[in-house]
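Honest question from a wet-lab person: if I give you the sequences of every part of a complex, can you actually get the arrangement of the whole thing, not just the pieces? Trying it with mine:
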Amino acid sequence: MKINCKHVWQHISAYIDGDVDASLRADIDRHLETCEICSAVLDSTRNVVVLVADDRVFELPAGFSERLHSRLEKELSLGNQ
Amino acid sequence: MPAADPQLEAEMIRRILAGEKALFHDLIRPCERPIYFLLLSLLRSESEAEDAAQETAIKVYLNLHLFRGESQFRTWVLSVARNEGLGRLRKQATRREDSLDAEIDAQDGDYTPAVLTSWREVPSEALERKELGALLRKSIEGLPAIYRNVILLRDIEEMDVRETAAALAITEAAVKVRLHRARAMLQKELAPLLQGYAPRRKGWLRWGA
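Yes, you can. This is the full assembly:
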């Protein structure tokens, strides 16, 4: 089936996650071969997903873990669970 | 982060409940990041999120005997965190304008991405530049809460659809729709801003491919 750009955009997130069925994937792949715009949108969306997943983007505040465990330690030493 | 081995967790929980309390530190450690970032997403304040994260860890400890093992431990922990966060929001006099439970997924509104063919990929190495990370954080923080929560758990903490749905008490279909919207909004906002970080290449070549 021939699909248009809008159709591709609707499924872009699912496509990235491998969550589209085989026939839709084939339709999208065929469209991407000839559509530079959709191919750029796919690449850039995928890139956003990769970048935001990088641990350097969202780091725990310095000392977070130490403070959490020291507060926990107090609770744990209170005795009754 | 992939979920921990449920059998190992079950064994740890059994030992903690039997008295080896110190093991709780190890049990909760893999959940620290998702707890904090879910709470940060809900509360939008680092200090409040940190305090709520500590409360969550304590509540998990005190209620550990209630964990039935029907869901993953981390999913259960995140639902405790979510309740903690929502409870605090309810107490705050100034409710944010975006309703957390707003169901605005029904209409499938058209999405027009930024169609800049000049930017396709910014290499991860560009994150060495602090301002790029700040740009990404700012865009995510600017998303409406329902989208921000989903993208935090799915794309930042890399939880699967099922676990994200369970932690946020929404359907798997809603997770997918919201994730799609969130990514689309980010792409649209970030594409023009990220151009400057892309390597100077033209055409179809991909960086590092």
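Two things worth pointing out. Chain B touches chain A through 58 residues (CB under 8 Å). The radius of gyration of chain B is 19 Å.
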